[in-house]
Write a structure and sequence with these properties.
This protein has helices at about 1-15, 90, 95-100, 120-125, 140-150, 165-170, 180-195, 215-225, 245-255, 275-290, 315, 320-330, 330-350, 375-380, 385-395, 410-415, 445-460, 465-470, 475-480; strands at about 20-30, 40-50, 50-55, 60-70, 75, 80, 105-110, 155-160, 160, 200-205, 230-235, 260-265, 295-300, 305, 355-360, 400-405, 420, 495-500, 520-525, 525-530, 535. It is of the alpha/beta class. The strands form 4 sheets. Strands 1, 2, 3, 4, 5, 18, 19, 20 and 21 form a 9-stranded mixed β-sheet that branches. It has a 6-stranded parallel β-sheet with strand order 9-10-11-12-13-17, with helices on both faces. Strands 6-7-8 form a 3-stranded parallel β-sheet.
Length: about 550
């Protein structure tokens, strides 16, 4: 009996003298928004290496490095469902404009992906480069993603395989269906991309040559993606007058291919289409009730940004850019398409004054950056439609253009939808260097902060818990990526710490190169990339691969 008492006494002594648990990083006393949408709670987060080791009351633990998160929100890193950082990350891997908003995963590849490429595609891409210049040192999509990781990026990266890229690789810019052999080639290219880690297949059906693809072609490709548990995501065929019919097409593809499907940057373009939102939501909710997995993403502005190609007929663009501009130089063709351009302007914005030109490739035209189409037309003493044609020819590109075409009321309704996630549909920029040579849409600097500041804190459209869910676990589950999107033990330590009372966007259409504020700390794979609001220069981002990835 005496020996038993001695044993328990020693046990108590050894327990009382044990060292506190130590973590590489300990985030103390934050308000935890874990990504589930459930009520937030006060707690601590312990990180070891690249992984969340513990969450909860860790007051008796210590960290080799400690962060005081008192009074601040602690959440999973945000997922940008549509990023155009494909070139900007080559120029500057720090991903400044997005990291400073809490984005820790950039999802690339809207219709066009940076692989698979053939030699002609590489030459065309090189010729089309604007302010950002780079050598194309890869061929497949997997090689491109690994190229970015090796160069060093602050955020994680993932990509869809672009259906447009597959079509150009196989068919070129011709307006015709693929032959049986070409369809097989496209499927094999997609299969390779899925096995390299693509998260699915994407389309951008409002643009040439993607618009030449029929529904059956999309279904066949999506069947391949579905075999690898990938997603189909689409800039639908028309966001204007045929908005509802275009949603029907996406739902049909999802049903026939049995694939998860998402609508890119969900919106209704032009005042005559603003009243179609409720019908569109009913279609999607009905499809979801019937067992289809349909979701959407959006950006939080009433203006879109694309090119002048979107207001020209498809037939004039067939054959690629050189063929397009050759037709534009033909006086007979010019006179034929000018009424079409005028009609498109009226449908989208109602006036050339609501079309802002923000990006040129030709240095001699950059002085026009930030002017409206109406202003440039007046300067040149020409009609807006003549000016559009002239600028495409002179710049050697489709230009970068902002269209003010959406409804603020609809924007709020969309944010409230439970299946809506978020995207920037823009580059991830730095407010320095080559990025200042052109304008951009403020969404590149402010989309995520705008959600949390304007629509959550100020207008209370949704709760902060729900906003975090839609920025994190919802897109992560849609993409079926592992161990990201939530604050859970064993998950990767992609973590953001921000001040809910201060986070806000600062970029405007007049001054777009302005960082958001209120994001205090950001960790990617356990490495701090933002500290006290300043970038650390760290580039710990990794390739995030889809469920079809076959490890070598």
């Amino acid at each position: 009996m005496k020996n038993v008492k001695v044993f328990f006494l020693l046990l108590l002594i050894s327990g009382g003298c044990s060292s506190p648990v130590e973590y590489d990083i300990l985030i103390r006393d934050g308000q935890i928004f874990d990504g589930s949408g459930n009520a937030s709670y006060r707690g601590d987060v312990g990180i070891n290496a690249d992984t969340i080791a513990a969450i909860g009351d860790l007051k008796n633990a210590k960290g080799r490095a400690e962060v005081n998160a008192g009074g601040m929100a602690v959440a999973p890193g945000f997922i940008n469902m549509l990023s155009w950082a494909v070139e900007s990350l080559i120029e500057d891997g720090r991903s400044q404009s997005d990291i400073r908003q809490g984005v820790t995963l950039e999802v690339l590849g809207e219709g066009d992906s940076w692989g698979p490429l053939n030699e002609k595609m590489k030459r065309d891409m090189k010729a089309a480069q604007g302010d950002v210049k780079y050598d194309i040192e890869w061929t497949t999509l997997g090689e491109y993603l690994e190229y970015l990781e090796k160069r060093g990026v602050s955020a994680n990266i993932a990509s869809f395989a672009g259906a447009t890229t597959l079509r150009i690789h196989t068919i070129g810019y011709e307006n015709r269906p693929p032959t049986a052999a070409e369809m097989d080639s496209m499927k094999l290219l997609l299969q390779q991309a899925m096995e390299e880690g693509a998260v699915g297949i994407s389309s951008a059906l409002q643009y040439v040559p993607a618009s030449f693809a029929g529904t059956d072609e999309l279904i066949e490709l999506c069947k391949v993606a579905a075999r690898y548990d990938g997603m189909y995501i689409s800039h639908i065929r028309d966001e204007g007058d045929r908005f509802l019919e275009s949603i029907d097409e996406l739902i049909r593809v999802a049903e026939k291919a049995q694939v998860r499907a998402e609508i890119y940057h969900f919106k209704q373009v032009g005042t005559s289409n603003w009243d179609k939102l409720d019908q569109a939501v009913l279609k999607i909710d009905s499809a979801r009730s019937a067992g289809l997995y349909i979701t959407a993403d959006m950006y939080n502005y009433i203006a879109s940004s694309t090119g002048f190609d979107i207001i020209m007929p498809d037939w004039v663009q067939e054959g690629g850019f050189d063929a397009w501009t050759a037709r534009l130089r033909d006086p007979e063709i010019r006179s034929k398409i000018e009424p079409d351009i005028r009609k498109s302007i009226m449908q989208k914005t109602g006036t050339a004054e609501k079309i802002l030109i923000v990006g040129f490739n030709n240095d001699t035209l950059k002085y026009l950056t930030g002017k409206t189409l109406a202003e440039v037309a007046e300067m040149r003493k020409k009609t807006p439609e003549e000016t559009v044609i002239d600028l495409v020819i002179e710049d050697g590109s489709r230009l970068s253009v902002v269209y003010f075409s959406m409804s603020e009321e609809n924007l709020r309704k969309q944010i409230a939808l439970p299946w809506m996630s978020f995207c920037s549909d823009g580059m991830s920029c730095s407010s320095e260097g080559v990025f200042l040579l052109s304008g951009t849409h403020p969404r590149a600097y402010g989309n995520f902060a705008r959600l949390l500041g304007k629509y959550v804190r100020e207008e209370k459209v949704i709760s902060l818990e729900e906003a975090v869910r839609r920025l994190t676990s919802l897109p992560a589950s849609n993409l079926k990526i592992n161990k990201r999107g939530e604050l859970k033990t064993g998950y990767y330590a992609d973590i953001v710490i921000f001040d809910p009372a201060k986070i806000q966007d600062n970029a405007t259409f007049e001054e777009p190169h302005r960082y958001a504020t209120g994001m205090i700390h950001v960790f990617v794979n356990g490495v701090q990339v933002l500290k006290e609001g300043d970038h650390t220069g760290a580039t710990p981002g990794r390739v995030v691969r889809g469920p079809g990835w076959k490890k070598e």
